[in-house]
Each structure stands twice: as structure tokens, then as C-alpha cells.
Amino acid sequence: MKKYKINTWFERDRSFVELTKNGESILEFWDNDVTELIEAGFINPKNYLQSMIDYARYLGLIDRISRV
Predict the structure, then answer these.
(1) Are 42 and 9 in contact (CB under 8 A)?
(2) CA end-to-end span of the chain, whole Å?
(3) Which residue from 43, 44, 10, 6 is spatially nearest to 26, judged by alpha carbons?
(4) 37: helix, coil or strand?
(5) What is the C-alpha to C-alpha distance for residues 38 and 18, in angstroms, rounded to an integer?
(6) Rounded to an integer, what distance in angstroms lies between the CA atom of residue 24 and that of residue 46?
(7) Under a CB-based contact definition with an 8 Å cutoff, are residues 40 and 32 in contact?
(8) What is the rounded distance in angstroms from the CA atom of residue 27 to the CA atom of residue 19?
(9) What ranges in 4-46 are assigned the alpha helix state H?
(10) Confidence class for position 63, pLDDT limits 50, 70, 90
(11) Which 3 state secondary structure label does DSSP give 63?
């Protein structure tokens, strides 16, 4: 079974968001990339997990029909 997890870290002007599956990194963003993706609507800070899964699917990094 695929188990997705989100890792986040924020401190002053630093930020990090990562999507992992079974402990392996699928997608990660740092600093300005996090801010730009939130402002563009690709990442939802109220639901990092689902929005990062959706973005990874959009990029073709995970199967579109896989279940969370």
C-alpha cells in the first residue's frame, strides 16, 4: 500500500515542503519556490498533503489513478 506523507519546515525566511511515499522523496520545494507555488495556487497551505499529491500527479511523478 502506498503511504504518502508531507514534511514541512518553516523558520523566518526559510521554508520547506516535501512529499514522500513510503519514506522516499517524490517532490520537495524550498524557500521562494514554496512561496511561488502557494501564490500560484498549486500548493494549498490548509491541505499540503492533498495539494502536493495533486501537483505531483500534474507533473506526472505519480500515477493519476493511484489512491492516497
Answers:
(1) no
(2) 9
(3) 6
(4) helix
(5) 14
(6) 23
(7) no
(8) 5
(9) 31-39
(10) confident
(11) coil
Q: Which residues pair with 8 in a beta bridge?
A: 17
**Residue reference for cell 523558520:** 11
22-58 pLDDT, tens digit per residue, is 999 999 999 999 999 999 999 999 999 999 999 999 9
- Residue 57 belongs to what H/E stretch? helix 48-58
pTM: 0.85
Q: What is the pLDDT of residue 57?
A: 93
Cell match 502506498: residue? 2
Q: Is 38 exposed, middle or buried (0-12, 13-18, 19+ CB in 10 A)?
A: middle
Q: 46 Cβ partners below 8 Å, 6+ apart? A: none
Specify the pLDDT at position 9: 96
